[in-house]
Amino acid sequence: LFTHVEAAPGDPILGLTEQFLADPRPNKVNLGVGIYVDEQGKVPLLECVREVETRLARSPAPRSYLPIDGLPAYNRATGKLLFGDDSPLLAAGRVVTAQTIGGSGALRVAADLLRQIFGAQARIAISNPSWGNHHVIFRSAGFELLEYRYYDPASKGIDEAGLLADLEVLQPGTVVLLHGCCHNPTGVDLDANQWHRVVAVLKERRLLPFIDLAYQGFDRGTARDALAVRLLGEAGVENFVVANSYSKSFSLYGERVGALSFVGADRDEAARLLTRIKATIRANYSSPATHGALLVSGVLESDDLRARWEEELGHMRGRIHAMRAALVEKLAARGAPQYGFFVRQAGMFSYSGLTKAQVDRLREEYAIYALTSGRICIAALNEANLDYVADAIAAVSR
Length: 398
Ligand code: PMP
Description:
single chain; alpha/beta; Aspartate Aminotransferase, domain 1; Aspartate Aminotransferase, domain 2; seven-stranded mixed beta sheet; 14 helices; binds 4'-deoxy-4'-aminopyridoxal-5'-phosphate; NHTrfase_class1_PyrdxlP-BS; identical protein binding; PyrdxlP-dep_Trfase_major
């Protein structure tokens, strides 16, 4: 039955990791990773998470099913974290939130539901470039994929004119996927003024904004990194969607903690949307998992642990900023002042502007692994490898 089945193409990032692990050179550095690692190169276990986990272990509870849309406390806390404690949208009952299997699960459930709602007309515009799984998920849900201009390689910033021009010509009802902050892979984000202009076009053209927020708190803090969500609310945009992930902000990758929120025009519309979200989850995986949701809601519901989380998140963010600044300084000292843009980029990732040939040299001559696109993970830098990486990047840039 399966003799004709061909293998699916391998994941280029995982392939790179395998190559890295097999590399015997002791000074090797993996800048290709997609997760936050600490100064020691390890995935951290946050203290606030450990605390909730200890409490849970002290009074073990049976594990029945969660409701289809997940743990109510988790969804309530998520709504507040995204939309703000005193959000008029929350007060008006216009937001419905469902716990999902990671941010990826939120994207998939939303994609299936929006495809049902919009039918064969379903179209989505995705930034060029974007996280590869965006294309995979929406294509496999049956969407027509469009791209809007976003990154300008010349300035290493936003191609704002191109972005606005591309949004202007989209058909009303087109879904527009926007990274809320810490754009993956470029690290290039819209500033507040640019967000205002983009939101105005989205509203005017009756497009459906879809915010993917996978790095809330990794650039400026939880509230400021939710700017896009807050602006859409303030601008009176009737409908929008938010997919968020706690994988990075709680360092809970394998617990698959995410959520999907839909904003309805009024309470009644939102309630109807929730029934449709639940039907879509039912058809996908029936209901989400308990443990990660208990950890996240346990932290967010306690004033004390919430404060500790903000502190620990601030530490991760601070380390990323420090590594960016140090890399720029060290590169400038080595005759490569052109990399000043690293400090203007946000989050874990940076488009370095390194060409494929330079990335190849880094790997072959220095055992430094980056993606062929030039994307590097800033969190992979630490005091022990920074000088070596700066030496190598300066050398291949000459
Ligand atoms: N969106 C973006 C932009 C991401 O980078 C990621 C994770 N790499 C996700 C969504 C999905 O996160 P999760 O691991 O929670 O599925």
